[in-house]
Design brief:
Layout: H1 13-21, H2 25-39, E1 46-50, H3 56-64, E2 69-74, H4 77-89, E3 96-100, E4 112-118, H5 128-137, E5 138-149, H6 155-166, H7 171-183, H8 187-196, E6 203-206, E7 211-217
Helix pairs in contact: 1-4, 2-3, 6-7
This protein binds S-adenosylmethionine.
Length: about 220
């Protein structure tokens, strides 16, 4: 099945609310668990979360790895506003900062030890923006850990995945999940993107019927 792109930013406040209040504990805890098993505890490091949305992964990461300080970047102010409130309520505002801006236009002043991203790649019109941003903002040898959705073979399979994993969620979330799956990349396509950016030492692993991870170190 051919890829069908979806809008890049999640700017609609209703969409941001639904996303922020959805229960992503399973995939997001899995993100942390997989990071730990593939990369270990990174220690006292700076972490950039690209396309952080409402910051749920930033907060889980900060709790799991108490030595880290994080910057979450997203192009959607409604998403970040929800993230900032939750982060203050969680008592993590001294370790997690947020910045509104879009890759590749944003200009960050720092370089990071660890670069993480969940479910950004399939939103980007140009997927190379993610890999180029890692090279731009990672220190030499920085750790990279990216997770994203895997495009199914057919629309029928896509519908079946939505029914399997999002049946109890509000309509807007089911709609977004369906279209995100249609916009997702396949591992062979990601491998080509990595080769294009000379990042082919990063490893791609399919970890479920609808997710893959990309991990390793920058040159
Ligand atoms: C599906 S959400 C994932 C949010 C978060 N990473 C998570 O796992 O909960 C994708 C996010 O990427 C953001 N985004 C899309 N394109 C972007 C870009 N070019 N620069 C920054 N953020 C972007 C969207 O606004 C949205 O909040």
């Amino acid at each position: 099945m051919q890829r069908t792109p979806e809008p890049e930013l999640m700017l609609d406040p209703e969409q941001a609310q639904a996303y922020a209040h959805a229960d992503f504990s399973k995939p997001h805890d899995r993100f942390i668990h997989l990071f730990r098993t593939r990369c270990g505890d990174p220690g006292n490091v700076t972490v950039l979360d690209l396309g952080c949305g409402p910051g749920d992964i930033c907060r889980r990461f900060a709790r799991a790895f108490p030595g880290c300080t994080l910057l979450g970047v997203d192009g959607s102010q409604p998403m970040l506003a929800l993230g900032q409130t939750e982060t203050r309520n969680a008592g993590l505002a001294d370790r997690i900062a947020y910045r509104c801006g879009c890759f590749p236009d944003i200009d960050l002043p720092e370089h990071f030890d660890v670069l993480i991203s969940n479910s950004l790649l399939h939103h980007l019109q140009d997927p190379l923006v993610l890999w180029q941003s890692l090279l731009r903002y990672g220190k030499p040898g920085a750790r990279v850990f990216v997770m994203d959705l895997l495009r199914p073979d057919s629309r029928a399979q896509t519908g079946a995945l939505v029914a399997k994993y999002a049946a109890g969620e509000p309509d807007i979330l089911q709609h977004d999940f369906y279209h995100s799956l249609l916009a997702a990349w396949r591992p062979d396509e990601v491998a080509r993107q990595l080769r294009d950016q000379k990042l082919d030492r990063l490893q791609i692993e399919v970890i479920s019927d609808h997710h893959y991870i990309v991990h390793g170190r920058l040159p």
